[in-house]
Write a structure and sequence with these properties.
heterodimer; A: mainly alpha; two-stranded antiparallel ribbon; B: mainly alpha
């Protein structure tokens, strides 16, 4: 067996435990260990990405239990891509946090590593109950990270976030129980087999259980009726945490993509394609609602939080088409938008740091130091998020429009996506002109701290992915295309997982 | 049949009580509601393997009746996680009460109490 598959979970977990044992105070050791672990994860993720691109699935049986009985970790193209995106965001947001944000509360580094262990585990696991456990791991770390820095507003929004997610977790277990009662297994590959063999008269419970899980993952991904927790939670988190959180909604989207292509895919007999009638409609409604929120935002962080909602709507729109072209668009959009949005969260903090009382509110204030640099970064991020030509958002949106062109859904997809893009452009232009052009009349009231390279370089690196995804568009699209084909052919996954059961070492 | 009916109605009543408490505006009932909801979910999870009386969970040569051991393991995991989460929410609620000076879930103060001038 190839033991590298479990390394992205073990490395942050081990680092987190050592960080907890180290206790508080040894700042340099803690920072060094956290950074080393994240750099190790980037290397691991890139290695696994290169391996997964070969097209072979890596199945890792924990404890070497035979497959339907034990838990398996499965690495395919989609999970490798999610690991890589997570590791890149973790690297740059940790780099940003090292400039002082990590000292605003205790145990920042340990929690950060626990969060990464949960994220990596959720992307790798091939078992629904294990997915629940990793969700809880990443959530409990995120509860504490959200509160990092303290303050009344964080506490108030933290309670909403925690209670909402606990209810979603309870619902997750309800779905798991219903699926286990009807299928008798929780291993995803085995579930796919069991669903196909389910007699029609017993399929109702599996059907209901699958849709309960769709609601749960929709809540994590922040789709339309369930996204109201997101703007206030992301708004109140400290910048590096908000940047890392931009992956968290994508965990929900990932789980939707995984479960509803693998288990409830088109070949699943009577319960096949149960999510198809829902996902596209919900995605477009989310897109519309997110755009309205964007227009109503009064500060930069809310603006970016609603962009997260919009990006979830966009990528679920791609997934909801359930075609190679649609999923390809969704996967490409997911990777680039997550990285760019993380960069924008850091940028919002850079702006807020300089404006004292005004913070990141969209009101004209004093001139910003290094206005040209920040302005260019904001422009790049806005262009990428809105989807204007030179940067990667454009390709993502164009792919989605192209994927829908021959389908009946084109009547809905085109107007919603195009109008939403136009209105996003209005919102971002307004924000940019207020922050960079209308500001500067007054002299700064207080000395602003100098803009250290350690602050703007990570932000610029994350935003540079928008350019990278254009320069390397051909390999990125090939990868996204291969991912979509792999997802839409679940029989390979099922065979890879179930057949390893019979191979004794 | 009666056992199924009893368990199903127990789960239903507990879940309904939990949801009712969850919708209250104070943090303490909300925490209680979450706890009740997780009890209901644990019972549901336990029942997902089917209800068998005095069956053995592991293979024994003398036994003929077996019960599914997996839901028991799942419930155990869910209980442990639920326990940790409840502890966290309680600490969070106490902290919020301390910092916001009020136990409303939105951190809002009640109008009448403010008029009475009871709190700073």
């Amino acid at each position: 067996m190839n033991h590298w598959v479990i390394a992205p979970i073990l490395l942050p977990l081990a680092a987190a435990i050592v960080l907890l044992l180290l206790g508080i105070g040894r700042r340099r050791v803690q920072r060094g260990l956290g950074l080393a672990s994240v750099i190790g994860q980037v290397a691991l993720a890139l290695g696994l990405l290169a391996y997964a691109d070969g097209g072979e699935l890596l199945v890792y049986r924990l404890g070497d239990w035979p497959t339907p009985f034990g838990i398996v970790l499965v690495l395919d193209r989609l999970s490798a891509l999610m690991l890589a995106v997570t590791a890149c965001i973790a690297l740059f947001s940790l780099w940003y946090a090292l400039q002082g944000t990590d000292e605003r509360g205790r145990n920042f580094h340990a929690l950060f590593q626990f969060q990464l262990a949960g994220l990596n585990g959720a992307f790798l696991t091939g078992d629904v109950f294990n997915l629940f456990v990793f969700f809880e791991l990443l959530l409990i770390a995120s509860y504490a990270l959200l509160l990092h820095g303290g303050g009344a507003e964080r506490l108030r929004n933290g309670i909403h976030y925690v209670v909402f997610n606990l209810v979603a977790s309870a619902l997750f277990l309800v779905g798991v129980a219903m699926l286990y009662a009807s299928l008798g297994t929780l291993n995803m590959a085995d579930m796919a087999r069991a669903v196909a063999e389910l007699p029609p008269e017993r399929s109702d419970m599996a059907h209901a259980g699958g849709l309960v899980l769709l609601v749960v993952f929709g809540a994590k991904a922040a789709v339309l009726p369930l996204y109201f927790w997101l703007p206030s939670a992301y708004r109140s988190a400290t910048a590096p945490v908000a940047a890392l959180f931009s992956v968290m909604t994508k965990v929900g989207a990932y789980a939707i993509l995984r479960l509803f292509t693998l288990v409830f895919g088109p070949d699943a007999g009577p319960t096949g394609s149960i999510a198809e009638p829902w996902i596209l409609g919900v995605a477009l409604a989310t897109l519309a609602a997110g755009t309205l929120g964007l227009l109503a935002s009064r500060d930069v962080r809310t603006l970016i939080a609603y962009s997260v909602v919009i990006s979830v709507g966009m990528l679920l729109g791609g997934i909801g088409l359930f075609s190679v072209e649609g999923i390809r668009a969704g996967v490409y959009y997911l990777a680039q938008s997550t990285l760019v949005l993380a960069g924008l969260f850091l940028l919002a903090d850079l702006i807020a740091r300089q404006r004292h009382v005004l913070g990141d509110r969209l009101e004209s204030g004093t001139a910003l130091e290094r206005r040209g640099l920040l302005g260019i970064l904001f422009l790049a991020g806005a262009v990428a998020v809105v989807g204007l030509p030179p940067l990667s958002g454009f390709v993502g949106k164009a792919l989605l429009l192209q994927a829908a062109v021959d389908l009946e859904a084109v009547r809905w997809v085109w107007p919603v996506v195009l109008v939403s893009s136009a209105l996003s452009l209005v919102a971002f232009s307004r924000a940019g002109s207020v922050l960079f052009w209308k500001s500067g009349g007054r002299a700064p009231e207080r000395e602003t701290p100098a803009l250290a390279p350690g602050l703007w370089v990570p932000c610029a690196c994350l935003l540079a992915f928008a350019a990278l995804f254009i320069i390397a568009a051909a390999p990125a699209l090939e990868y996204a295309d291969a991912t979509a084909r792999q997802l839409l052919d679940p029989s390979v996954y099922v065979r890879a997982v179930l057949e390893t059961a019979n191979v004794s070492r | 049949m009666s056992m199924e009916l009893l368990l199903a109605s127990a789960i239903g009543v507990i879940a309904a009580s939990g949801i009712y408490l969850l919708l209250r505006a104070r943090t303490f009932p909300v925490v209680l509601g979450l706890t009740l909801l997780s009890y209901a979910v644990n019972l549901l999870l336990f029942a997902s393997g089917g209800l068998t009386l005095s069956g053995a969970p592991i293979l024994e040569p003398t036994k003929t009746s077996y019960t599914d051991p997996l839901p028991q393991a799942l419930v155990l995991t869910a209980i442990v996680i639920g326990f940790a989460m409840t502890a966290f929410v309680l600490v969070l609620a106490l902290r919020a009460r301390q910092e916001l000076g009020v136990d409303h879930v939105d951190g809002r103060r009640d109008k009448p109490r403010e008029n009475a001038g009871g709190e700073s």
